[in-house]
Amino acid sequence: MKKTFLIIVSVLLVGLLTVGCSTSNSDNNNNNNNNNNNNQEELREFTLEELAQYNGKDGNPAYVAVNGKVYDVTDVPAWRGGSHQGEVVAGIDATTFISRSPHGTSVLNGLKIVGTLK
Ligand code: HEM
Fold first, then answer.
1. Where are the beta strands (DSSP E) in 6-108?
2. Does residue 52 have its Cβ closer than 6 Å to ligand 1?
3. Is there an atom of ligand 1 within 6 Å of 71 CB?
């Protein structure tokens, strides 16, 4: 009787330890995967035609290309509705526009890069 009790307790302990270890391992794996995604996210290549769909209108995101990189300006208040200062719109290669803007390319540092321009 005592022996049976000891066997049951041992089996329970081993079971608990296994569950505990595998849970923390999968947590670590998840964290690693997230980090990898952040660091090595594949950048999409946009043609000018594809970029034109991201014009910030009708619920579309607003993307703008500058010097071969595509930036997400969807949540930038100054780009609301995909239009900026009445001078430039989203969905285009705006490299020439930014060179004659008051702020220059420094504003690009705060923006998320979503791809490159083909
Ligand atoms: C002739 C073209 C442009 C003009 C005259 C212009 C002008 C301005 C002005 C006056 C602001 C300040 C707006 C405010 O504080 O509400 C601004 C902000 C901004 N502009 Fe432009 N811009 C031009 C082109 C561009 C381009 C091509 C980009 C490319 C992404 C850009 C990105 C931004 C961003 C991200 C901000 C917000 C900066 C912040 O709030 O920190 N601009 N622009």
1. 44-46, 63-66, 69-72, 83-84, 88-89
2. no
3. yes
Residue type, position 62, single letter: A
Sequence-distant (6+) residues with CB within 8 A of 52 are 91, 92
Q: Are 56 and 91 in contact (CB under 8 A)?
A: yes
Structure confidence by residue, pLDDT tens digits, 31-41: 333 333 334 46
Total-model pTM: 0.71
- pLDDT tens digits for 100-112? 999 999 999 999 9
Contact 84 CB / ligand 1 (< 6 Å): yes
In angstroms, the CA 102 to CA 57 distance is 25
